[in-house]
Write a structure and sequence with these properties.
- By secondary structure, the protein is an alpha+beta fold.
- It folds into two domains: 156 residues, 60s Ribosomal Protein L30, Chain: A, CATH 3.30.1330.90; 78 residues, ACT domain (Alpha-Beta Plaits, 2-Layer Sandwich).
- It contains six helices and ten strands; from the N terminus they run ααβααββββββαββαβ.
- The strands form two sheets. It has a six-stranded mixed β-sheet with strand order 2-1-3-4-5-6. A four-stranded antiparallel β-sheet has the order 8-9-7-10, with helices on both faces.
């Protein structure tokens, strides 16, 4: 019954100013703001779970971009969802993955607002559907990127209330936090590989934070995810790849 100015109390003005400052910082950091008005296909955040999966999708997108080989030109990206995720959350997760996946590949800035247009202009066809084959977790996302005879399949889940984990890469299972500097090592499942990695990293004073090894079968192909303190470049990478049973080493930088 009061005029519009009736809500203009000192307390309300403080809350408005606090909200504006908080949302501005989110936008400047490239994050999703709480009340978007110009994001395509998004009505708003439906809950905390969607926010965590959007954050995870961004990390998976950044990982995919750095992991794929230089000659890999993506033509199709398939987003697969399962569990408690609501269909209205899929668009947000898709945008978060695409933004990180395409970031740095163009001269223009990639944002949540223009990323779909950029993806379409690059000829990337996108598919969304429920995932019936990834049943190891109650809720999870997987993304398959295909193009020119190449393919990457990467997946992740949110454990507990907020612990995001990269849990799948090209057939290999993991449970690692997608943050910091990660060495992705593709190798033959032969004795001595782990020892070689540890020796070379120690030689270059690089400390191992966490080491996870996954293999398809005994004596077959394997993949390691090595989280390290600091960065791995130059001679250390060269020394790692000199070992005869190591096929490929890739440094993935995911930030904090």
């Amino acid at each position: 019954m009061t005029p519009h100015i009736g809500a203009s109390t000192k307390e309300a003005q403080f809350r408005i100013a606090d909200s504006v400052a908080s949302e501005t910082l989110k936008a400047l950091r490239g994050e999703i703001v709480s009340t978007p008005v110009n994001l395509p296909d998004i009505a708003g955040l439906s809950g905390e779970l969607a926010s965590h999966y959007a954050y995870l999708a961004g990390k998976l997108g950044a990982f995919s971009r750095q992991f794929m080989r230089q000659e890999f030109v993506p033509g199709q990206i398939e987003f697969l969802f399962r569990g408690k995720l609501n269909p209205e959350d899929f668009a947000l997760i898709k945008l978060s993955y695409l933004k990180s996946f395409l970031q740095g590949t163009l001269d223009e800035t990639v944002s949540y607002v223009n990323v779909l247009q950029i993806a379409h202009s690059k000829g990337i066809h996108m598919i969304e559907q429920e995932d019936h084959g990834f049943s190891d977790y109650e809720s999870a996302i997987r993304v398959q990127v295909k193009g020119g005879g190449h393919q990457i399949t990467i997946g992740g889940t949110v454990m507990g209330r907020s612990r995001v984990r990269l849990s799948y890469l090209n057939g290999f299972a993991f449970e690692i936090e997608p943050t910091g500097c990660i060495l992705s090592i593709e190798n033959e499942d032969k004795p001595g590989v782990i020892g070689h990695v540890g020796t070379i990293l120690a030689k270059h004073s690089i400390n191992i934070n966490r080491f996870e090894l996954s293999r398809e079968n005994k004596g077959g192909q394997a993949m390691a995810m090595v989280m390290v303190d600091g960065d791995v470049t130059g001679q250390a990478l060269s020394d790692l790849t000199q070992y005869p049973h190591i096929n490929r080493v890739q440094t993935i930088r995911l930030g904090g």
